[in-house]
Every structure is written in C-alpha cells, then in structure tokens.
Amino acid sequence: xxxxxxxxxxxxxxxxxxxxxxxxxxxxxxxxxxxxxxxxxxxxxxxxxxxxxxxxxxxxxxxxxxxxxxxxxxxxxxxxxxxxxxxxxxxxxxxxxxxxxxxxxxxxxxxxxxxxxxxxxxxxxxxxxxxxxxxxxxxxxxxxxxxxxxxxxxxxxxxxxxxxxxxxxxxxxxxxxxxxxxxxxxxxxxxxxxxxxxxxxxxxxxxxxxxxxxxxxxxxxxxxxxxxxxxxxxxxxxxxxxxxxxxxxxxxxxxxxxxxxxxxxxxxxxxxxxxxxxxx
Length: 280
Known about the structure:
The protein is α/β, with parallel strands linked by helices. It has helices at residues 47-55, 94-105, 111-124, 140-153, 170-187, 198-204, 233-238, 242-254; strands spanning 5-16, 19-31, 36-40, 62-67, 70-71, 79-82, 158-162, 190-195, 207-211, 219-224. It is built from 8 helices and 10 strands. Helix 2 packs parallel to helix 4.
C-alpha cells in the first residue's frame, strides 16, 4: 500500500548557550491512509516534538514531512489536533468553541450546514445536552470531549493527538478511548497519537512506534497490533496475544529504549525487528 504520510530523515535541533541540543534525529516513518499509529517512549524522548512538527507548530530542523503528496510547511486545516488540555476559550460555549474552526474551514457552507456539523460531532461525543454550557461548567472529561469534537468536525486529512487522556481519571480515560475509537472507525481519519500508556497504545493502534531515549531520539522498534476491529476493551485484553505484546512494549521501555539502533526507514506495516537485549 502507498504511503499517505512520510516522515523522511526528520530531525529537531535547538540552539542553546552550550551548543546545539539534538532532540530528534533520523526519524523515518511511513503511514498508510486510515491507519492509527501510536508513538510511545519515555518523557523527554521527543514524541510530542515529532507531533508538533507534523502539526506545523514547531519548525523542522532536518528532513521533511509529506502528507497526501504535499510537503508540509506550517500549520493547516488538513491536520486536526487534540491536546492534553483542550484549551477552550472560556467566554464561549462548547458549541461556539467548535464553531470557531468550522466557520473558518467551511466558510462556503450555509450557516445551517455549519451548525449541523457542530451539533453532530458534539452529540456523537456525548455532549448533546451540554453543548451550550461554558467550559467552567464542564468537567475535565467533558472539556476533552469538546476537543475531540472540534478536531473531527474540521474533517482533517490527519488527526494528531498529544496524550489527550493523560490528565483524566482511569474511568473517564477508558470512556473517552472508546469514544475516540468509535469516531475514528466511522471516519477512518489517519491518526498519530502520543501516549505514555502501554495498554492505551495496544487498545487503539494498528502499530506502536517505540522511540529511544533522548537526546537524539529516534525510532527503536515498531510493533504491529493485529487485534481485530471493531474493538472492545474486554476482548482485546482477553486476546491470547495481548500479554506477549504488552511485555514486548514494557521490555522495550525498560531495557531497549536506552540502545542506539542503526538508522531505519519504517515503511507502513513493516515491523522493525527488536535488537537483542544486553545482559545489563
């Protein structure tokens, strides 16, 4: 299958008083259209940096990113972003927050059509009765539902998620993972998500991309996740392959994330073999 997204030799370097600080180096990854990929790794390994470069919010130091045949330069409505904190404008209702982007992207549509888009996505994420409330009247989980609705409502080519459930309690996190999965299944928007949560990565993704520790972090391993879709949490956790895949991710984070792999170009659905672990 042809690549929909191509990260080619991506690097990010910051200038500091002590000299260049290389955050990400030789990051190569191809993603097919409609694929859900999770980026996982230790704090500070550059996961969010990769995502912010894809979003156009952080300048790329080296290499380039191609989305649907076009090299990216700066932010654009072809990428929808869901942040850890939804950053809603407090003086606008949930509905008005979602409408902000819709009015910009779908300016040629009628006012009724734009309202229907906002109402549809807010209803799908479970806010049909709360869409006219202000952010201060909503729980953290409800505010994140607004963030998810806002991203999907723009009908982007690419969905980018930066630990969107990291600030939520376990029950709310599980509920919103299911909401996200159902929306993604209906829309099949190509998705790249940053997470620290091994179980979350296995539940949501088609592949888990494991990043080595920084500085100069890169891809260490890629784990294909072949659980059948549509997915239910209980079915995934009961699958006979689940313990093995979970152990492989944990083993990478505990042992192999410290290793420096040879540069690779990870094409879509092509597994990257795990290097042999040292006896350390």
